[in-house]
Amino acid sequence: MTHYVELQVLTHFSLLRGASGPDELFAAAALLGYPAIGVSDIGTVAGVVRAWEAQKATGVRSIAGTRVDLSCGRRLLLYPTNRPAWSRITRLLTVGKKRAGKGGCLLHWHDLEPWSEGVVAILLPHEADEENLAALKDLKAIYGRRGYMALFQRRRPGDAVRIDALARQAGGAGVRAVVTGDVLYHAPEARLLQDVVTAVREKCTVDELGYRREVNADRALKSPDEMVRRFRAYPDALQASVDIERICTFDLGELQYQYPHEKLIDGLTAQEALQRLATEAVDRLFDGDVPQAYSDQIAHEMKLIGELGYAPYFLTVYAIVREARRRGILCQGRGSAANSCVCFVLGVTSIDPIKHELLFERFVSGERREPPDIDVDFEHERREEIIQWIYETYGRNHSALTAVVTRYRARGAVRDVGKALGLPEDLTSSLAGLVWGWSAEGVGEKQVDELNLDIGDRRLRLTLDLARKLIGVPRHMSQHPGGFVLTHDRLDDLVPIEPAAMEDRQIIEWDKDDIDALKFMKVDVLGLGMLGCMNRAFNMLEADKGLRVGLADLQDDDSDVYAMIQKADTLGTFQIESRAQMSMLPRMKPRRFYDLVIQVAIVRPGPIQGDMVHPYLRRREGLEKPEYPRPELRAVLEKTLGVPLFQEQAMKVAIVGAGFTPAEADQLRRAMATFKFTGGVSHFSEKLIEGMVERGYPREFAERTFRQLEGFGSYGFPESHAASFAKISYASSWMKHHHPDVFCAALMNAQPMGFYAPAQIVRDARDHGVEVRPPCVNASRWDCTLERTGGRYLAVRLGFRQIRGLSNADGAKIVGARTTTPFESVEDVWRRSGVQRASIEKLADGDAFHSFSVDRRQGLWKVRGLGEAPLPLFAAADRQADTFSAEGIEPAVALRALTDGREVIEDYRALQLSLRAHPLSFVRDELTRRGVTKCADLANVRDGRHVEVAGIVLVRQKPGSAKGVLFITIEDETGVSNGILWPDRFEAQRRTIMSASMVSMKGRVQKEGEIIHVICDRIIDHGDLLHRVGDMSFPHRTGRGDAAQHPGSPDRGDKGWEPEPRNQYWPPHADGMDPEQVVRFKSHDFH
pLDDT band at 1064, cuts 50/70/90? Predict the structure, then answer.
């Protein structure tokens, strides 16, 4: 029987205040022998679900609560005694958050009373003075016997006297005192980290913190016995903590989630309405002659949906998709919903599950009893319309987006800790620059040696140690790209709602994992850049070429398109444009749609680690025969040549081969998805292997099958996902093959997107015979447009969006001002458009004045001659006369022209690409003198010969499944070449690889069919050569595919990887930035 329970604990969800996560705190509490601890973060309940999960793991009960710091300076801990009291606390926090805006919570004393019933309040006093006496009186008036006052040590002179005075004062006011420990972290050694996060929060160094640091350094969780020893003079106050724990019986598991009742057809229940809609839809699909397979499948699905009560959920998604179609917004369902025939006939997904034989149990299963997951992708620019429609339809008290906890990664951690410890900026930058993309390792001693730093220096060593501890700590909360939680009753009865930074959006405090843990349903309304890009392309096709095509029309397999895909000519297409995909395509040789589905799924960490890729390729090339020990397995695996590539197949193998029930197979799939962390597959292994042996399979075959399924654990791809993606891959390849001009323009307008930078997209289009024209003040619009030519394709005119730093608004003014007559001079542009002089300078930088034969240098010279604004008298006279008179006629000046090389580099700086020449063409003579081969000439070099090729770095990648191998792609004026570095080679030359803009690769040529790689021994930095081209540094920016510059997300299989929501979507802002994402990413690779 314990005599004390800790009730004042901050976790790291009190952002940059608490220094330990709920899991650490609960693990420590279990070791110290606590039966329960209370979690009370400041103005938030973001950490309580994690604490509830920790309760299941450790057996220490979590008491969910919060701490409110009121505007009058009083501070209270609030704990609900039961379920209704929890709702009162969440409603109270919602009031405070709406008032304060994102990230804050502003409450006044008078707000407390309406929400006080059933809530235990603990006042946190400062001193025993008049103010505190008044606070105790107010507390008693509102909370009565549920009002307490905390006694905690401050470790200051006269502390015992202070505590005694407070205890007497509370006794006099009739308020019971309770002992608390004022905990900020789980163990004493976390104190340094706590100082660092305080410094980050206060935006200063640790040395300058002074009185802003925490009052005392004794804030770790202490054992109950130690607390009893410290406060033995106050036995009743110790007992009070146990009494509070006893009356606060609320557990998060009590939150009963109610899905909104959908009324689509009056007078029918949701189930009946769904039944009628599905029946009518399938009749329409087959003109009344419905094949038996479809009606059976729909009946089977409807029965399950009815048993589990999911009909309203399906109706919601159907309503959302119907609204999008009504507004002409391109959308496509994906995720496991593609396994459902009901979703297919209702038009939510475009994949026919009967034709592809997809398993409904993967989506909804009776035993699993957890909400289904339907993701709908929309074109990202118009997704906001759908989001607002959902808010309006369901009401703001019943709908909100889930949160995403943005956590520290290695780079940010090194930067912030270095800043807090006072390391110079250039030092932290160079340390952070050595961190590869996403990384959970932090910076090691080896990297420090490379920078010639002294690891013996205490501050440096401390920075690296603390940075490692900071990785994974929440930095701030932002919104999920589109995960909606919808409820029937008020949503803020379950969880506080706060406004997001974007106007008209609101989010709840819990993220996707918290919601899964509590079994809430969420609808995903996601934005997919490629859908927006394809929609633009279809619109352009119709507007410029008069062809009407849509995603649904591209069903037939076009052999010419597949011929292009087989040559790996897929730059810019969806999903099959990456390095790994391009090197697989010539070996896979896709010939029909299903081959593409396999192609999308096979280049993934799961199949690679499960060793499925090579057997599949060997069988596909006819080098080995597929083996099927039994005919029933043949039915499952024949379409993938006997190799289980998809999650659904893994489930079917277990059902057919080992006699699992569909529900058990689904448990196996879930174990596969998480076994990395739990080792959950092993207890299935006996059942699977013995079950197969019993049914007469060879043991060796059974064990190999299990090993392949285990590889899936790291990342199996559902067939339904792959099919949805392959559809878009095919559509984009069709567009690229038949209309490269439209494809190039649409892709340029969708930047930043995909793997490559604008320079490669334009270069690829020109290789396909498309003429690309530079931005022009008289011909360009904001977006890239198509112009008539005499040739086979239309010409692509680059838009103003390509000019660095020019805003959309200024671009629109310039286009609007030239509607009647074209511009004739730089001054004319400035006067008629009314834009700032700085914007005219950006146009000159981008060399957009060539239509009136003013080159870049003359343009900049003329901009210098303009005033800040046109003189009003001239402007008025001009408007009346509809003419243009120059303010000051300047004598013509003969300026020395820029060198060709300098023009190219300036193009790269202003436009990220150059239509004049490739930077390397200017240093080719020097490279030839050094014995460097051109990229295009590698095709003529014999396998195994030593070569050196040089080029600008396009993409660097180090996939987790490749065990530290680095892939690097470089480009010269003749083409691209691909290099491979083994891990030891990469580590030895890490700095060069991470920072160089132009390199040469020395090594052996390796040829495999049409695929050529250089196995690199040395990488040499040629930045000096590139500098020579324009006598200035080269503005090198890489595409999003370059993992060194753009840390995407961790690879499955990396240490520290956990499944987290990823934002692949970016919002409709002129510069492609979400105001939520404070961290600014550079897009496209020519830094």
Answer: very low
